[in-house]
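hey
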C-alpha cells in the first residue's frame, strides 16, 4: 500500500501508525527464516524501511513512523522502542514525546474535565542539525476556552518565541510590537490576534530566527517559559540512535 501510494505522485506525506503493531499474522507468515519469527516485528519493519526509504526519497514523500516507548526488558529502566534497529537507522529525525505532569482543566457541558496537557519533545537523532535539542508545547484533546479546536496551541508557542527573541518588547508589565501596545502578556497577544496580524507576527519571528538573533534571557521561574515536569525520567537516553 505504501509503495503504491508513493508511486502515485498524488501525496506528499504518509503516516505509519504504528511500528509496535506492524507484525500482523499475515506478515509473520511470510517470514521464512525461523530466526526472523523470534524478532518478527523487527524483521517486518526492516523489510518495510528497506523498500520505502529509497522510494520516498526518489518521489519526495515524507514518511512519519509513530512508535511507543516501552519498558526495558533487560531491567535497566531505559526507554525502549519496538521494531528493531533498522527503523532507527533509516529515520532522518527521531523525536521522543512525553506528556507533562500538569493537566489543563476547563468546563465542558457543565463539568470540570481535563482538556489538555503540556508535551515535552526531544530529538534523539537529527540528520539536519545537532541532536538532543528539547522543546515543549501545549496540547488540547478537545475544544475549550484556551483553544477552539483539538491540537497544539500554536498561538501560545508564538507568544513565547516572540518574547524570547525580543520581537515583542517588554517594559515592566507593558508589552509592545510595532503599533500595538497593551498591559499584561495575555491582553497584548490577544490584541495581535484580534487585529488579525498573527501571520505578520509569525513571519517576523521566522525572519529573526533566520538572522540568528540571540534569545533574550527571561526569569527562569516563570512557568510561561519553564520546562514542564514529566511523570517519568526527565532525561531521555537512547544508545541505539
Amino acid at each position: 500500500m505504501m509503495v503504491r501510494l508513493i508511486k502515485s505522485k498524488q501525496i506528499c506525506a504518509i503516516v505509519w501508525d504504528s511500528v509496535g503493531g506492524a507484525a500482523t499474522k499475515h506478515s509473520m507468515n511470510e517470514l521464512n527464516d525461523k530466526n526472523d519469527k523470534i524478532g518478527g516485528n523487527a524483521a517486518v519493519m526492516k523489510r518495510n524501511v528497506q523498500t520505502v526509504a529509497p522510494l520516498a526519497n526518489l518521489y519526495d514523500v515524507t514518511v512519519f513512523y509513530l512508535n511507543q516507548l516501552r519498558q526495558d526488558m533487560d531491567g535497566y529502566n531505559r526507554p525502549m522502542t519496538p521494531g528493531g534497529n533498522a527503523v532507527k537507522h533509516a529515520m532522518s529525525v527521531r523525536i521522543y514525546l512525553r506528556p507533562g505532569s500538569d493537566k489543563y482543566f476547563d468546563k465542558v457541558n457543565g463539568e470540570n474535565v481535563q482538556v489538555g496537557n503540556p508535551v515535552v519533545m526531544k530529538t534523539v537523532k537529527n540528520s539536519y542539525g545537532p541532536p538532543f535539542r528539547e522543546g515543549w508545547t501545549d496540547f488540547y484533546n478537545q475544544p475549550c476556552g484556551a483553544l477552539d479546536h483539538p491540537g497544539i496551541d500554536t498561538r501560545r508557542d508564538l507568544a513565547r518565541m516572540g518574547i524570547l527573541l525580543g520581537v515583542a518588547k517588554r517594559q515592566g508589565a507593558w508589552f509592545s510590537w510595532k503599533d500595538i501596545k497593551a498591559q499584561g502578556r495575555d491582553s497584548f497577544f490577544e490584541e495581535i490576534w484580534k487585529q488579525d496580524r498573527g501571520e505578520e507576527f509569525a513571519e517576523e519571528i521566522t525572519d529573526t530566527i533566520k538572522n540568528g538573533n540571540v534569545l533574550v534571557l527571561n526569569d527562569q521561574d516563570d512557568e510561561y517559559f519553564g520546562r514542564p515536569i514529566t511523570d517519568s525520567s526527565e532525561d531521555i537516553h537512547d544508545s541505539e540512535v
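The first strand starts at residue 13 and ends at 17. Residues 237-241 have pLDDT under 50 and may be disordered.
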